[in-house]
Design a protein that fits this description.
Largest sheet: 5 strands, antiparallel
Shape: globular
CATH class of the largest domain: Alpha Beta
Number of domains: 3
Number of helices: 10
CATH topology of the largest domain: Uridine Diphospho-n-acetylenolpyruvylglucosamine Reductase, domain 3
Distance between the termini: 25 Å
Strand content: 25-35%
Strand order of the largest sheet: 6-7-12-10-11
Radius of gyration: 20 Å
Structural class: alpha+beta
């Protein structure tokens, strides 16, 4: 298990923010877990790092960073109605989606090209284009770095909600997700509720039956067209959650802006507003603030033009949140995890 002191993390976070860690170890196999527990006790404070796509790293992290790099995908179980697929935490999420679609294990195609690793996916309860991870979730294995024990956790244990889970609410750095299991139904049905997919040419051409492969390709095309490549322009994907407001707050926004983009929630008493629409309407799309700015094609994405650190991002995000609160009476919530 490689142990590096004073590790530069600039290349290990997709925002490309300047950051250094007191120490870093690379986790690749379950046999390392007891030693990791010993290292965690030595340093006191731990951060678990996957693909670095959903974090805002402080300039200096006085902690032990555990870089998760374990690999492996397999069919754990198969029944008449579903496959149970297990993937190790260090697998790239998009590679897992592509692998499953290629094998005919459908159900993840709407989640193509979401950056990050498999182990990070349940922490954030990732979702896109009408599909959430918890809809496909079966169980996971996690290691308690504080007490040196392994736990099997099901849906109730994980306490999933919109871009949230038990792991985001628990003690930072305590849990290392080692493997994720997904239940992919054999009686597959396409999820095409979002206009970007429902109206996509790839899903209309020639009247052909919609397949998971076609949806996968369409999602990849949309995301590549709308979102910047972190390898070219540093970013963490969607920076703000879509705010969920009550009917009164929604009506107040709609009176001022009848074209507001919103989605009624299942309970009929709340609405999810499109944060990107709010930011765009407020005039932030394409605006730059020093070394950072708002992407010119997607208002939800904050970008690093080079040389930025977490303080630059915090200044920009704070200005946007204050403006949206003043204009619409809506408070935006940051999606990436702030790591201090």
């Amino acid at each position: 298990m490689l142990h590096i002191h004073d590790q530069d993390l600039t290349s290990l976070n997709t925002l490309g923010l300047h950051s250094r860690a007191r120490a870093l170890v690379r986790y690749s196999a379950v046999g390392q877990l007891p030693l990791l527990t010993q290292q965690a006790a030595r340093y006191g404070k731990v951060m678990v790092l996957g693909g670095g796509s959903n974090v805002v790293l402080a300039p200096l992290l006085d902690c032990l960073v555990v870089k998760v790099e374990s690999q492996g995908i397999r069919v754990l179980d198969e029944s008449d109605d579903a496959w149970i697929i297990e993937a190790q935490a260090g697998e790239v999420w998009h590679d897992l989606v592509a692998h499953c679609v290629g094998r005919g294990w459908n159900g993840l195609e709407n989640l193509a090209l979401i950056p990050g690793t498999v182990g990070a996916a349940p922490v954030q309860n990732i979702g896109a284009y009408g599909v959430e991870l918890d809809q496909r979730f079966h169980s996971l294995t996690a290691w308690d770095l504080l007490n040196g024990r392994q736990l099997e956790m099901g849906p109730e244990d994980c306490r999933f909600s919109y871009r949230n889970s038990f792991f985001k609410q628990s003690e930072p750095g305590r849990w290392l997700i080692t493997a994720l299991r997904l239940r992919l139904p054999k009686a597959w049905r396409p999820a095409l509720d979002y206009p970007d997919l429902r109206d996509h040419p790839m899903l209309q051409a020639g009247g052909a039956a919609v397949s998971a492969r076609r949806i996968f390709d369409a999602v990849c095309e949309v995301r590549r067209r709308k979102l910047p490549d972190p390898a070219v322009l540093g970013n963490a994907g969607s920076f703000f959650k879509n705010p969920i407001v009550d009917a009164a707050a929604f009506d107040a926004v709609r009176k001022m802006h009848p074209d507001v983009v919103a989605y009624a929630q299942d309970d009929g008493r709340a609405y999810k507003l499109a944060a990107g629409w709010l930011i765009d309407r407020a005039g932030w799309k394409g605006r730059r603030m020093g070394r950072v700015g708002v992407h010119d094609r997607q208002a939800l994405v904050l970008v690093n033009y080079g040389g930025a650190d977490a303080r630059d991002i915090a200044q920009l995000a704070g200005a946007i949140k204050a403006d949206i609160q003043a204009r619409f009476g809506v408070m935006l919530e940051q999606e990436p995890v702030q790591v201090c």
